[in-house]
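Exam revision sheet. Question 4 asks you to relate a sequence to its structure. Input first:
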Amino acid sequence: MQKTHSPTFRHHSARFGRALTLTLGVLGATLAWAQTPADKLSSAGADPQAVKQAPAANTAPPILRPPAVDTLATVRQRGVLRVGIVQVAPMVMQDRSNNYVGFSVDVARRLASDLGVRVEFVETWWTQVIPQLIDGQSDVIITGLWMNVPRALLANFTQPTASEGIYLIGSLPRAKQRRSLEAFNQPGVTIAVSNDPSQQAVAKARFPRATVTPVDDDPLIVVTEGRAHAAVVATLSADAVVASAPLRWFLPTPEPLASTSAGMAVRKGDPDFLAFLNAWIAIQRESGWLAERTRHWATSKEGFR
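Answer key, structure tokens:
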């Protein structure tokens, strides 16, 4: 006998069928959305003016530093501390007997004495002092080296040993009538500056109308020889520099053009040596020795020739 269903049953069955169809449709759309590439979704439904999310960067492999030299142990075993220097008054100079003198020379000699070794000075120039350190020709730079970012990328600086000012020192024979900084910021005026990029930047920013000339020699020698009206010089005391040659140089203004910290520099990858030097500097500062040496070389004419 054929089975029949009541109208109520048929009505509920139809509703159930439509609900099932709708549910399966939504589920299918959800699965399709989940498998759709992100870029297709962005082009299809995202705001066309929206900023696209940057792709994830590839993870760079770690850079492994080669084994470093234990400089402190090497120096003590060798019995010699090799110090990179550049002649610049009053940090590093030579007296009339050609002996090295100056603030940085005193620091280097004291450091070597405390280490129980002798000191050997490796004289060079600003463009070579850090490369020679990296190449192992010196163990440490102690020469009033300015602390700046480009240098800090190549070598590690200790805490500062001194703070220097950058001054304009004029030629008395050629520029005695120019008694202000603005008087030197004029066409026809030549200002000598060392090849140090930091000093060049200061000079060019302060004297844009003058001719700023980087030189390989000591800028003050260039002034003395009559090849420049003035020199930009970094020093502990511009007064001491001028007092060493009062008939050749004068100070247009006692105010520095800028100031900077100077410190020792060592090769990267040797934290023990850096930690020792920082501790040594702190001891010398707390004892008053660094301050006494700073006062001495800010007023002394020793070494100026």
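Marking note for examiners. The chain has two domains: 71-163+260-299, 166-258.
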